[in-house]
Here is the input.
Amino acid sequence: MRHWFTVSIAFWVLVLAFSPVMFAQTSSPSATAKAAPPTQDLSGVWVAQGKQGSALLTSSKEDPPMTSWGKAQFMAASSGNKNGSPKDAATNDPRLKCDPAGVPRVYLSNRPIEFIQTPKRVFVFYEEDHNWRQIWTDGRAIPTDPDPTYMGYSVGKWEGDTLIVDTVGSNDKTWLDNVGHPHSDALHVVERIRRIDHDTLQITFTVEDPKAYAKPWTTSSRTFRLKPSYDLTEEFCVPDEKGAARNAAALPGGHDK
Here is the structure.
């Protein structure tokens, strides 16, 4: 009887001694999982973080390497642009006619964007002008001769935690950015979209257009912040006699302040 009692005491001493270690081992993975970004998941509403500029520049903050044709198009788009301000050059901005922004310019708005993923497609909804596009992720090849559209034809694939998106088939009616950098209908844009942590999304663009640019070039990255409480509102561009007028009708929920 005394032997059984002694063994019991020893057993419970060992349990109490090792229980904090066991608890730490079982609880720490869940804590780590909460801090880690979701793998291959861009879902959510995102808003551009900080002042990221109206112009797309190279990763070294330089002007893109335009061809002579590209420079001529840029100067025509920027006629009257005395101080390098998009406001001064707005007279020939296709957005004033309510034309869709195209890729990559559609990302340069301060309006929220939302990613929704399905097994075969990623949908991207842009609050500005109620634009949206689809990125095919079902393994299909990039089309060789797609019909030209404002937003182009997009095919994506995952490389680790980064979604690589190829967009071709854009028409030549849009600008690359808000200051008039041009492109032709040979434009090929590669987006690299990565969720660098749970609340932060980072996107870079590589632009290839042999008619407008002397060589392919990659932009500096643009950063977006997750806004779980945001709902995209309804906004349309409605042209009037004075140009484009944008009207936003807030839906229930709206943007938090």
User: Anything to note?
Assistant: The chain is about 15% helix and 30% strand. Residues 1-35 form one domain. Residues 114 and 127 are 8 Å apart (CA to CA). The first strand starts at residue 44 and ends at 48.
